[in-house]
Design brief:
74% helix, mainly alpha, 200 residues, Four Helix Bundle (Hemerythrin (Met), subunit A)
């Protein structure tokens, strides 16, 4: 039996059959870590807004475009939905995963476009600093997520061309499920960010 970890004199080999469960658990742990990270921005938003020291919550015209915010959220939701569907429709998984990747990339482009049209910076009050910080860090995490989605697209494409490799077939499906679960959860954080930053 092949091992998924290097074997040393005191290291027991890890059976490949454990990898699907490890992917499942890893995705959920990653969701928890990301939640705690973005809770800091949520706390900062309500803390600074409630204090409003020297009326500095918003300095000047600090109003991001709701239209671009809606566009970003809608594209992210469509991306997450496409990736989740890819886990349930093996016949269309390559097309759906590729669509998810393209939509996620479009959301990132829209976010960069929004930054160029803001008309305010991080020093324009508490709201502006939270807005810039939250959206910037959201984009950074999204870039890493895009890489993860891209590896799933590449794996599906390679499997279609060359056939399954020596690993059990369930590993690729488990990795896609873990990726899609995390991406759907992460998009949910993006929806929360939209509600807080644009509507509250």
């Amino acid at each position: 039996m092949e091992a998924s970890a290097p074997i040393g004199p005191h290291i027991e080999p890890e059976p490949l059959e454990w990898q699907p469960r490890a992917s499942w658990v890893g995705a959920r742990l990653l969701c928890g870590a990301v939640t705690f990270f973005f809770m800091a921005f949520l706390f900062a938003y309500f803390y600074l807004r409630s204090l409003n020291v020297n009326k500095a919550w918003k300095i000047g015209a600090v109003n991001p475009s709701i239209g671009l915010g809606v566009a970003i959220v809608v594209v992210l939701i469509l991306s997450a939905a496409a990736l989740r569907l890819a886990t349930r429709r093996p016949a269309s998984d390559l097309r759906l995963a590729t669509a998810s990747l393209v939509l996620a990339l479009a959301a990132i482009v829209l976010q960069v476009v929004e930054w160029t049209t803001l008309g305010f910076g991080g020093v324009s009050g508490g709201y502006a600093s939270v807005f810039i910080g939250w959206t910037a860090m959201y984009l950074v995490f999204a870039l890493f997520s895009l890489y993860w989605i891209e590896t799933q697209v590449a794996t599906i494409w390679r499997t279609r061309r060359q056939g399954p490799g020596p690993s059990p077939a369930g590993i690729s499906a488990a990795n896609l499920e873990a990726c899609s679960f995390f991406w759907a959860f992460y998009v949910g954080i993006g929806v929360l960010a939209f509600v807080v930053l644009y509507l509250v």
